[in-house]
Design goal:
Layout (H helix, E strand, L loop, with lengths): L4 E6 L3 H10 L7 E7 L2 H11 L3 E5 L7 H10 L5 E6 L4 H10 L3 E4 L5 H49 L5 H5 L12 E8 L16 H12 L5 E7 L2 E7 H6 L4 H16 L4 E4 L3 E2 H15 L10 E2 L15 H15 L1 H17 L4 H18 L3 E3 L2 H12 L4 H13 L1 E3 L10 H12 L7 H8 L3 H12 L3 H18 L5 H7 L5 H12 L3 H13 L3
Parallel strand pairs: 1-2, 1-3, 3-4, 4-5, 9-11
Antiparallel strand pairs: 6-8, 6-9, 6-10, 7-8, 12-13
Amino acid sequence: MYPMYNVMLVDDEPIVKVALRTMIPWEELGYMICATASDGVEALTLVDKFNPHIIITDLKMPNMDGLQLIKELNNRGFAGKILVASNHGEYELVREALVLGAVDYMLKISMKTGDLIHLLEKSTKLIQEQLQSRQQQETQTQLLQHNLKSVKNALLKDYFTDPYYDVQQLDQHEAITFAFSESSCYLFYITFEQNNATHNERQNHISVSFIENIILDILETVDQLEIIQLESNGLLLLISCDTLDDHQIIRTDFIQRVIRLIKMYISITPTIVFSDPVRGYAEAKRTLERCKESLLIQFYNEITIIDPKDVHLKDTLDFEDVHDFSTQLIQNWKLSGVEAVTQATQQFLDICKSKQINPAETKKFIVNCLHYLPLCDAHLIVEDPKLLKNYIENIASSKRTTDVLSIMELVFQLFSHQKQQIVTTHNRDVKQAIDYINTHYQKKLTLSLIAKHVNLSENYLSRIFKEEVGQSIIHYINTVKMEKAADLILKGNPYIKEISTQIGIHDQFYFTRLFKKHFGVNPSEYKNHVQATLGSGN
């Protein structure tokens, strides 16, 4: 099916217009006569209304002739094609019409169907070529603009991320227009790093074009702004002060709308740091660094909108002492278990938050305390030193106080307190038996099993064990199991059946009798008993 082209007929002789209308099957060939006029003046009034692709015009007409019409159409930027219909003897007029841009001409007196179709096809071919050329030019222009924009964004990214990139280096790129070399703008740093660390990888695909569309939703324009992707999850937005002022939008309202739209589209809540007006890229670079530093305050609590003027981080922690706080943690752990350690740590972090202590200093202090803990209590036992080292490293790299609290809980679950007398012996067989008991206390241990392990008879092992240790091997096994059970109770495990199972005793009633015989109180009373004893200083 042919595309439909609009054709206008302009002639002061009605018979000519009738002849043209009936000469060919216009619509079958893809043409439609959209309007007719009797002179140039009337034709001009109809051009804007009907937008003809082709105009067939007489040269001699009253009011405004064909040449005047062509000139006026050229002045108006008419994009269609013009064919002229002439009489014999009008060759000079035809020549001038062709010079003015007419595609071709036809003689009214000898006009034939085939000639008219040929001229129409010639005109439509030129229209198609013109359209293709225009589309190519538009594509090339868009590509050039895109390339220039990409180059500009790359230069600005290098400038804002490289501390040695000087603002004068931007001025050397004369082919690129930087919007805020001299003018004032608001600076917004948009990041998804701090409070979305657990989100999926979609945050790595948040692009400049996505933020541009967000801004377009709010301001209906993306003029007078620059968006630079500094990191995969961090973008810098510079927007003209006049742009927001003209839309009568205050900065915090603008930020809230940006956050709301981002959350609506991709279900991620960003953090946005904003500044007062800055002038020029040098001031913008200094301000960006201040904005990034203020993000550290999110260690203490999640904030979606940050004004750097409200953040004054201190690099000195002088309200607490490592020795005193470490001692407090040990005492709290002995008295009330891991929960008390968490509570004391939370109180410490709350004070750091209120004083705006730099999170690096806060974490450094806690790490020093964890290293100092064994010096506070010689009987403190670390069950897995390698895991403890990993926990300490995790605290140093943590991004949230909640992370610190969780890790502190794990740290103190690694600790136990050595209450039983340390047994020293020079007998290799007895030492081997003791090591086996301390390592396998979770199992059901018997004299036969231990004797087999050390490759001795039961009677001989019992005798030399009693001589070296001062107690029977069964009594020593029960002592180790009870001390381990006591540690589990102090760590906060309230279930007697679970504790007895963990030390290899599956009869909880037997375990309770054995525990009371060893400590003088039932397992359910032991924690309160220890707290009362330590609290009284005994």
